[in-house]
Write a structure and sequence with these properties.
The protein has about 425 residues and is mostly beta strands. It has 3 domains: about 120 residues, Immunoglobulin-like (Sandwich); about 120 residues, Immunoglobulin-like; about 160 residues, no CATH class.
Length: about 425
Amino acid sequence: MKFFKIISISLFCILLSCSKAKEDIEPVAFHAEVTDIEAYSAKATITHNATNRDPYYGIVVEGEVSDVSYAIDYFLESATDEELKAHLHYQRKSVFALNQLAPEKTYTFIAFGMNDKKKLYGTPAVAIFETTKSDFKASVNPNWKIEYKGPTVYNNNDYSLITVSVIGDVEERFFLATYTVEKAKTFNTMEELIMTSIYDFIHQKENDINVDYWLEDSGVRTKGTNFYRYLTEGNYISYAIGINTDGSPTGHYVKTPAYHVDKYPADEMYVYLLGEWIITDNKGKTLNVTFAEKTVNKSLLMYGFGGLQKQAVVIAYNRSDSTLTIDAQTVTDNISIKFSDGTTETGKLSLTGAYYNKESKLKQTTSVTTLTKGTPGQDGAFTFETNFYITLEDGTKLYDTGMMYVLKKTDGTSTMFGVRMFPLTMHKKTE
């Protein structure tokens, strides 16, 4: 089944159903027509034979749709009720613009109805159209200057800094596009690069039905500004691309020379955390774990929890205070584990909260997101304190909490193991 990407949506609603009497007399049918087709926009007209109280939708799907029902279902699954209500429409005839289209592309416009019980009604209408070739010419904007400034730390995170300066009182909108040198070489013309960057920028939120959201996006600027981008090691070129309010290109751009981004340097504590550690819980149980790099200065991988050496728990690192945060998480959706008694069990492995009830029976909690936070001490050790407690129906609060692995099997049963109760202490393993 072809994957459909909803790129422009208008005239949405889900409230009133058409009258049964009307349907008994004449089945509801929609008619759609797309006219005034240009490179970046078109005009859609929808008519139907229901009433002005009957809601309907209009969606644009990239490509020629062969399965209309699938395209409608895909849209309905991705759109929220709030998004639908924001585009409520009842008229028997509506004419509206389709914007943010790309040149020389085929699109399918679909109109369909749905009643107050979210049941589809009527016969959908389909109009296939192709946008025209763009005739704009790319040119350098002499009022813009773009520079790569190198690595920097912003809001305690590592970024590459790209600045755009604007000379004089210029109100033209622009946004930043950054490509690897290899990717930039794949564009045959500057016009092709500009159109691709605009398309990617506007449609980066494929399920956002507010077609004008990008106008208020922090990435759209008119004045000189700093852009912070997280880039992996490699060679890049950055561009400032001019854009009109309707999503079409102004044709203006400036670009940096090719520049190299090195791997962001790890801070002292992050480097210290890498390697082998020993964790001891409040019941004296010890555990050998190994920390490896995930995202420098942001997160680590902890191997060895629960005795598993190939599966890792993701731990967040805060460079501002060197604290560690362990959240409940899915470790893997499918794993086979051989336990010490010789049995092998398969299922979904998760790290969750653990506690002992009043009868000292181990229980799992799924209502806790952050399980614990680790704070460094002067001796280089970390302490992971109790971050949550359990309130029973009778109001009793249980503070004997911890974390553990839960293996949920396909038969619906679960196996709990690797239990460690808070507080935990963690010391660097020495030779």
